[in-house]
Amino acid sequence: MRISGPDWSRRDTLAGAAAAGLLSAIPGSVAAARTSPRKLSNSNASAEAKALYAYLWSQYGRHTLTGQQERPGGHGQELEYLQRTTGKLPAMLGLDYIDPKDLAGVNARATDWHRSGGIVTLCWHWGAPDIGTGYENSKEEFDVGQALTSGTPQNKLMLQQMKQVGDLLAELRDRRVPVLWRPFHEFSGDWFWWGKHGPDAFKALWRLMYDDFTRTRRLDNLIWVLGWAGQNVDPAYYPGRAYVDVAGADIYVEDHGNLAPMFGKVKAIVGDTVPICLHENGPIPDPALLGPDADWLWFMTWHTRWLTDPSQNDAERLARFYASERFITKDEMEVARRDGAAWACCTKMGVRRLGER
After folding, report:
1. Does 280 qualify as catalytic in the annotation?
2. 332 has catalytic annotation
3. What is the homologous superfamily of the domain 40-332 according to CATH?
4. Of 178, 256, 277, 356, which is the most buried if we count CB atoms within 10 A?
């Protein structure tokens, strides 16, 4: 993802790639050989994470959850705009460990959102570890080969910063907040440091973090979301079902189409082993166009102009889409917990306990 400013021209490049037909589906031969059970990759996942994952599976192929990313600093502008424009709030709130001055604030907002009945997803615009924090630094060069070599300065810095974010996620674990965790996003592009060194380096980074957070740190509240860059959904980057719970892709286009070719490319890799999400977007896909060829589990509209600019999402369309039968909004979820784990969804279709089809 890119934050608005002088360096947002990549979105135009991605839109051009879509227009040029570069999102054609890859051959089905690379699809997963067989369907895995609908269980989290982490066998020790928390009750809350298991319940959320079961709920997501119960909606996949039936509904699409609405999602909204907050701008850094998180003063609620996007949520206020949606409430004012549509009369509703999204089912999911996206947050980012991008600003070291706001890390406690991110966790506080994530906790509040969860406790109010919403779903939390977190990403991390990780600045190059030997340069500094922030969005621009996430695009700087970083020697991943050295970072993956035990004992090097780059390795020590990377592990130190990974521990700091692990500590933040541990706070959410201890508050019993399940998190859709989306690290190293758009990894198959070449704009972030974790995507500049090819698929093998990326998979090593992903598995390193997964093993550290899951097996060493016991961050059992995490649901691992893998997000390709939409113009390069390359199966070579797939770490494997043992490390992934939800797969997805993103691309920034200028219309409200269903992005079916991109969905098909992801599905050709993961098959029916995990749900597939649109992990970022500008224009929200038209719910009338969603279905088997584009069964996005959720969308996550980017902040600032990608939500509010009429060329991206005009107010009338936003209100109509948020009121659609396909989309689930926060008021329609009415998430209920019993014994800290049970979730129920109250939608236009009636109340369904988790796992019901």
Report:
1. yes
2. no
3. Glycosidases (3.20.20.80)
4. 277
